[in-house]
Amino acid sequence: MFDISTIIFLVLAVFIFLRLRSVLGQRTGRKRPPYDPYSARDTVRGATNDNVVRVPGRSADPTPTPAEAVNPAERWKGIAEPGSSVATGLDAIAGEDKSFNGEHFVSGARTAYEMIVLAYAQGDRRTLRNLLSREVYEGFEAAIRERESKGETVESRFVAIDKSDITAAELRSRMAQITVRFVSQLISVTRDKASNVIEGNPEKVTDVTDVWMFARDLSSRDPNWKLVATEAGR
């Protein structure tokens, strides 16, 4: 038979158990996900999950105002001149993808451009595979493999991305294609096995112009835009 002290102890034990379960339940509900190094990047603000060049691991922001809801004369303000071939191409893309937003696309493209350049320098195949088409990835991967076989390393650092202008846009069947001309300032150097500089200058900022084409199949549930072609610009 329990005495009064035993009963009090049991009551206290049950109370403490319930309190602990309550606290643990709250912590489980608010537990932060594992750290994602890309989530801390602030290059893109307001990027959406439907019409930007997706950055792996980034969370989606609120859906932007669809292009069709904007006055046609203002639809591509700051991106393309009204009546231009670029504006016509963007109109066609927005007609198929009602959530398409030009400004958010450009912001996402800037982030992808920086990520791809740095991933190539670091030999980060996983990041490249997520952002490149199969054909472009194979070209990048072959260059990385050759570099690694020679024991060479590349160090790249962005100083600034001065411009990111859409120079072409079109919709072929359900395939959207947008070309962006990037003008950036970059410090890049290649070193041999002995860490001697064989190309570039670790102290010199170089002006770089690249013209990249991104594409997305609008009939696919995959919201990602991928890099499908590159060329050095003038």
Explain what the structure shows.
With 234 residues, the protein is of the alpha+beta class. It folds into two domains: 1-31; 37-232, Roll (Nuclear Transport Factor 2, Chain: A). It has helices at residues 4-30, 85-96, 102-122, 125-131, 134-149; strands at residues 153-172, 175-191, 197-200, 206-217, 226-232. Strands 1, 2, 3, 4 and 5 form a five-stranded antiparallel beta sheet that branches. The protein is elongated and about 60 Å long. The relative contact order is 0.13.
The termini sit apart by 93 Å
Q: What is the structural class?
A: alpha+beta
Largest pleated sheet: 5 strands, antiparallel
Number of domains: 2
Fraction of residues in helices?
25-40%
- The CATH topology of the largest domain, please? Nuclear Transport Factor 2, Chain: A
Can you tell me the CATH class of the largest domain? Alpha Beta
Please tally the helical runs, counting DSSP H or I stretches of 4 or more residues: 5
Low-pLDDT runs of 5+ residues are 6-53, 55-62
What is the average per-residue confidence, as pLDDT, rounded to a whole number?
Answer: 78
- The quaternary state of the protein chains shown equals single chain
Shape: elongated
Beta-sheet strand percentage?
Answer: 25-35%
CATH architecture of the largest domain: Roll
Radius of gyration: 25 Å
- Which series of helices and strands comes N to C? HHHHHEEEEE
Query: How many strand units?
Result: 5
